[in-house]
Amino acid sequence: MNVLTQFSVFLVNKPGVLAQVTTAVAKAKINLVALTLVDSSEHGVLRIVSDDADVLRTVLAKTHDRFTETEVLAVDLTNEPGAFAVAAEKLAHEHININYAYCTGGAPGGRTTAIFKVADLNKALRVLKPAAAKKKSRNPVRRAPGQRR
């Protein structure tokens, strides 16, 4: 589990704009941890998280002038049913609002990364930290059949 910088890049809704930004990122050999794209009729918002925010910031500044930065929580999860729900439930139980979230695609039986934009980052770190320590055992929080969450 890490706190990472997410870049929200505002894109005009026309062919080639997304390709221009992602090609520049690829040419700089920046590895993306996660990415999501949402759209409206006027523009799209590309949210990207990389393993090197400083280099990504430099590339974006050269290729695109409309982006913002925010800190997000990157949580390593097992790629199995319910893993995301367990993390969301823990945050809900502690009254931490999730503004939005998205996940990477993971290989079957492998790992996936969940990105959470939360109202209280430090509290979320404390709440999810025990879950991150337990994941090393390869089991997400499991309940007995029929046990309520």
What is the element layout, followed by pairings?
Elements: E1 2-12, H1 17-27, E2 32-39, E3 43-50, H2 53-63, E4 67-78, H3 83-93, E5 98-103, E6 111-118, H4 121-135
Antiparallel strand pairs: 1-3, 1-4, 2-3, 4-6, 5-6
Helix pairs in contact: 1-2
Search tags:
single chain; 32% helix; 149 residues; disordered C terminus; 4 helices; globular; alpha+beta; VC0802-like; six-stranded antiparallel sheet
Low-confidence stretches: 136-149
* Terminal CA distance: 23 Å
**N-to-C SSE series?**
EHEEHEHEEH
Superfamily at the CATH H level?
Answer: VC0802-like
- The counted number of beta strands is 6
The CATH topology: VC0802-like
Strand line-up of the largest beta sheet:
2-3-1-4-6-5
The second-level CATH architecture is: 2-Layer Sandwich
Helix content: 25-40%
Strand content: 35-45%
CATH class: Alpha Beta
Average pLDDT reading:
86
Question: Number of helical segments?
Answer: 4
Decide which structural class fits the backbone: alpha+beta
Taking the sheet with the most strands, its summary is: 6 strands, antiparallel
Question: Can you tell me about this structure?
Answer:
The structure is a single chain. The longest helix has 15 residues, at 121-135. Helix 1 packs across helix 2 (53-63). It is globular, with a radius of gyration of 17 Å. A 6-stranded antiparallel sheet has the order 2-3-1-4-6-5. It is an alpha+beta fold and 149 residues long. It has one domain (1-131): VC0802-like. Strand 5 (98-103) and strand 6 (111-118) form a beta hairpin. It has 4 helices and 6 strands; from the N terminus they run βαββαβαββα.
